[in-house]
Structures are given as C-alpha cells and as structure tokens.
C-alpha cells in the first residue's frame, strides 16, 4: 500500500474518530499501571458505596432447569476490610495463576511457536494462498474465528494468534491478522455453523426462567441455531469488509507488494515441498487418530451420555488437541527441512514462540487482580440490575424494546464480561417481559446474545485485551512503537459497531419475515 493511500485513508472523518480514540486511550498510563490504578479505584468505590448501603434486589435465575427464579439481595462489598483483603492476600498467587487467558495463551503460543519458528506456516502459505486476493485470506480467517467459539474463549486467543502468524507469512501486516481474527471470534458467539457450549449454558438458564415463570415455549440449546447459521455469513462479510476497507488502510499493509513483486522470490523450494508432504501425512494421521477417539460410540472424547455436542471431553480439549497438532506437524516439517537436528532444538523453538508473550505475562498480574476485585465488590451486579430496572420502566414494546435491550446488554457487557452471569440477572427480568408482549424466550435470549457478543472486544475489562496487546508487541518493528489499550480498542471499534448494526438489522428482518430462529422455535409465542 502506498504512503499516499495510507495518508488519505487516515484523513477520512471516521478514521480521524478512530485515531482520536487511540490517541486518548494511549495517553492513559502503561496497561500495567492502568490496571493497578483501576484496582485501587475499585477498592475505594467499594468502601464508599458499602458505607452508603448501596444494594439491589432482583429475581436471579437458577442454573438448574425447572427451578424457579429466587429473590436475591446483593450489596456492595467493602473490600477495604479484613474480610475483603484477607482472601485477596491469601489467594494472590492463585488469582494470577488461574487468570483465564494465562494458560490458554501460553499453551497456544508454545504450539504455534513450533509451526512458525520452523518455517512451516511460511512455506504452507506460500504454497497455497500466496497471491490469492487479500479479501479471500481475510474471509477464511473470519470463518475459522467465528466457528472457533466451539472452544469457548480459547477460540478468541487461537484465531488472533494464528491470524498474526498467517498474515506475517504472507508478507502482510500481522497486526491486521490479529485484529480481524480476534474480532471474528468475538462475533462468533452469536454466529456458528454448529452448536457450542455457550448455547447449552444460556438455554439452560432460559429454561429455568421460562419454567419458573410458567411460560410454555421451546428453550432447548438449538433455539437460536437457524439465526446463527445465517449470522455466520453476515459476520464473515462484515469482518472482511471492515478489514479490507478500513483496518488495512488504517494500519498499512504490504499485500500489493507481495502479489506483484515477491511471488517468484518466495517460490517454495524442493526441500520445503518435501517437508510439506511429510507434514501433510503427519497431519492426516493425527486427524484420523482424533476421529477414531471421537466418532465411535463410547470413544474417549465423547461425554458420559455418549454425545459430542454441545459439551464433551472433545469440546473441552480443543486447546490441547490443537497444541499436539501444532507440535507434531511442526516437528515433522522441522526434521525434514533440517531446522530440527536433535531433540534439544524442539524446546528452543518453543521458547522462541513464547518469548513474544513476556509483556502479556507482566500485564496479566494487575489485570487478574483488578478483575477479581471488581467481581468480588459486586459492582458488576449492581450496574446490571440498575440498567435493567431503568429499561423496564420505559414500557417499550416490539422492535423498540428489542433494540433497547440489545443496547442495554451491549452497555452492561463493557463492565460485566461473563455472559452467563449477566444472563442469570437479566433473564428473569426480560424473558417474562418479552413473553407478555408475545415474544418468545428464544428471541429474548438472541437479543441478549447480540448485545453481549458485539461489545466483547471493546470492553476495557476484557481478559483478552492484554492478550491482544501482547500479540501486537510480538510483531513490533520499532522499539518506540506503543501498543496500548487505546490502540486495541480503536482498532476493534469498527468491528464492534459493524457487528452490532449487522446483527440488529438481521434480527429486525427476521422479525418482520417471521422466520423460525431455531428448530420448532418462532420469534412469537
């Protein structure tokens, strides 16, 4: 991409807005310092609000289907007390070590490091899609990211990491791959070709609310499936358009140069071709092994009921399955091309893959403490309930109610990132409210999911913002380059807005056309 085109791209009104978000966000302290400051702020707020006696009362859904919602009172917890600080100090190391993204990102980067450091990804990309239209590469990455939520949150890390590696191998800007992969995986929580654990979890809560409220309507895990299949194509399209029309131009990309001048220079050598053949054989054998351990009845990866979806040992083991896949194919390729000469070379290559995570490991410490304190203070619950009460008081109906509920879920999601926790609070309020207006629990759940998934990627409290910062730091070309929270949120904002608008318009169209949103499930009661 020419410098002139890049300058023109950054001079558009929307680009200036996004750049403004980045500038303001990056004027904040280093993420480490910022999370320390946020943790201190939560401690002070918890003390003040607890002394003021702030609390909320609401009907909380049960996670067990058939159980009626129960009235629950939640008060702000004073963390600046013996009872608040003793658990914090006692569990300090545990809180850090059990920080959700920590093990995921380290495991994934160890595996991806093998295929990247041996040159396998580079050779494979040059052999297959080097010279293909850039939008095709982005679209494929988007589809992978959307359906990666079968691995729950792990899919967000995997797609971001592999997106950076693939774009780098193609001579493109790896930051574009990180951003687009991460965004697609987030949007995938309301889009998928298959049924994931999220569907079963949310449907279980919906069923308990509907049963307890005497609402006779389908609440099985497939109630949003038809919509999710259609949404997969919508998210793929939106991700590709935003990436190629905005992110590429905003960050700069060298895809044009690759297409025109580096194709011949990057022709795969005979030794590399042999390595790819051996790697292909190893990959097929590994996949066959996984199939043999998954498909037959009573096999290892099935659950106790003999099923694979929506939840089983297979779905819970996606990360280790991918890790061993990357390890096996990486070693196979490395041995063939001579990069791996002995067993000692394997941990050295894995170590190089992990080196890029060092900045994340540092930031993860205060991030883990802040999120733990924020949750323990009950500030998240109070915010969610207050917002729901406000919306209920507006007495809206039909499309306006659906849109406002989506907006509420989007806003609450910025502060309370656990999807099931929010639905445990919002479900008992809005499922009966929607039902009184003739709208099914399925469409209530769907509207909630749209708001929840659209703003996941721009929540400053997200576990994975530090992960994205760490991945971007891994591909720094200038030591003075600053990748902060402002950088990440500004780059992800266009995707968040596109998903929010796209999902909402799709649901409105579904509403007027009266399409079923799942097997045996209608929008209307």
From TrEMBL:
TM segment ranges: 32-50, 96-116, 128-148, 154-171, 178-203, 223-242, 281-301, 313-333, 354-374, 394-416, 423-448, 484-513
Keywords on record: Membrane, Transmembrane, Transmembrane helix
Gene Ontology biological process terms, A to Z: p-aminobenzoyl-glutamate transmembrane transport
Domain of life: Bacteria
Molecular function terms, GO-annotated: secondary active p-aminobenzoyl-glutamate transmembrane transporter activity
Pfam family membership, one: ABG_transport
UniProt keyword annotation of Transmembrane helix present: yes
Protein name per the record: Aminobenzoyl-glutamate transport protein
